[in-house]
Design goal:
Helix content: 40-55%
Distance between the termini: 42 Å
Order of helices and strands: HEEEHHEEHH
Strand order of the largest sheet: 3-4-5
Radius of gyration: 18 Å
Shape: globular
Structural class: mainly alpha
Strand content: 5-15%
Length: about 180
């Protein structure tokens, strides 16, 4: 593929990402009442389920922070990142330092998983939000959450088995 074609494709996808995809989520997913992001949206942006996946709260915080850091210093992007960041801090963590997998719209815990997807997306979000804002709290949360994941990886017995091993022996495809 020649350089001109690569540049055309770059501009096409950048325009589509910013004018269609990101603008859709900015317009429809920001929850100004309870914080965080509403993610169960139809094609018109209408909400059909208000439960919130914590991993997506991290992912949303990361993408808005990343856009702010890499594409342009738009206030709307860092404001959107802060909505997710604040929600993660307020409702994302259980008392044991692990993160929930899913919560209600107003942050009440619904589900906690053995996996560390919520934690991994939160680490990325905290790091990128720190880079965008310089807030030491975000940096410290990235380190603390990373340490939690490392501890789980090093001590997998801390995770309750999905299947009771005395009843049925299983082997996971992942490290948990």
């Amino acid at each position: 593929m020649d350089k001109k074609r690569v540049e055309q494709l770059y501009e096409y996808y950048k325009k589509y990402l910013l004018q269609n995809c990101i603008s859709f989520w900015l317009k429809n997913s920001l929850d100004y009442e309870y914080g965080g992001y509403l993610t169960c949206l139809d094609r018109e942006g209408k909400v059909y389920n208000t439960d919130k996946s914590i991993w997506f709260q991290g992912r949303g915080t990361w993408i808005y922070s990343k856009l702010y850091n890499v594409v342009e210093k738009r206030q709307e992007w860092i404001d959107a990142a802060k909505i997710g960041y604040d929600f993660l801090l307020k409702y994302g963590f259980d008392s044991d330092g692990r993160m929930f997998f899913q919560v209600t719209r107003d942050g009440k815990p619904l589900q906690k998983r053995r996996y560390v997807f919520s934690e991994m997306f939160a680490i990325m979000a905290f790091k990128e939000f720190y880079k965008a804002t310089g807030r030491d709290e975000a940096y410290n949360m990235a380190i603390t959450t990373y340490d939690t994941v490392l501890d789980i990886y090093r001590n997998p017995s801390k995770i309750v088995p999905k299947i009771i091993p005395e009843t049925r022996r299983t082997k996971s495809h992942s490290f948990f």
